[in-house]
Amino acid sequence: RAAKKVVRKKLTSGPALPGKLADCTAQDLNRTELFLVEGDSAGGSAKQARDREYQAIMPLKGKILNTWEVSSDEVLAAQEVHDISVAIGIDPDSDDLSQLRYGKICILADADSDGLHIATLLCALFVKHFRALVKHGHVYVALPPLYRIDLGKEVYYALTEEEKEGVLEQLKRKKGKPNVQRFKGLG
Which SUPFAM superfamilies match (predicted)? Predict the structure, then answer.
């Protein structure tokens, strides 16, 4: 039965998928998710943590091309953009979502300034060249925490320096010394 499922997926998937894509087995758009992650390291961690049935992982090589002022004819010349387009099954500027392979496309970048830049470039790509995906609610941006704060068995997360200071201020009333960890990547 598993062999039939693999063969059926190969026959219906269309063009060859990008090599770094760790695909999922499900095809139900209500369940499938593609996580675009920053680099092979995050890709490896994400692959280990995912549910293979409905979560696909695609590591990206650093910053993608700034596509905001690039025409749709030229945008596919960038390999990373081409690979994203093939993975999701949609051509740039297409309103036809019938070949969409994932119900959710999640941008998951590091919790640092480079990660924010990469997430911004990906948002620009989707807003400018894959507008139908955004319009129909298929694109998501994850916001990883910048800090983890432990006090005993309690764990707190902070997205910003200000939020971290607020948590530490609240914890002054409790016994013990909080342990603050700053995340470098996705955590």
Answer: Type II DNA topoisomerase
Question: In the block, which residue shows the tokens 């998928």?
Answer: 17
For the record, the structure tokens of 83 come out as: 């690979």
Task: Give me the helices (H) in the chain, please.
Answer: 2-12, 39-49, 72-75, 79-88, 113-129, 131-135, 161-171
| Active-site residue, from 33, 80, 83, 110 | 110
HEC letters along 14-58: CCCCCCCCECCCCCCCCCCEEEEEEHHHHHHHHHHHCCCCCEEEE
Domain that holds residue 155: 147-182
- Residue 86 is assigned to a structural domain of this protein: yes
Tell me, yes or no, if 83 is annotated catalytic.
Answer: no
User: Is 93 designated active site?
Assistant: no
Please identify which of the residues 38, 51, 93, 165 carries the catalytic annotation.
Answer: 38
**Residue 130 lies inside a defined structural domain of this protein:** yes
Q: How far apart are CA 151 and CA 174, in angstroms?
A: 9
Output the pLDDT for position 3: 44
The reply to whether the predicted model has a pTM over 0.85 is: no
**Side chain identity at residue 160, one-letter code:** T
Question: What count of Cα atoms within 13 Å lies in the side-chain half-sphere of residue 64?
Answer: 32
Q: Does the pLDDT value for residue 19 go beyond 50?
A: yes
Q: Is 114 a catalytic residue?
A: yes
What are residue 44's phi and psi, to 5 degrees? -65, -45
Q: Is residue 187 part of a domain?
A: no
- Lowest mean pLDDT segment, chosen from 59-68, 136-145, 158-167: 59-68
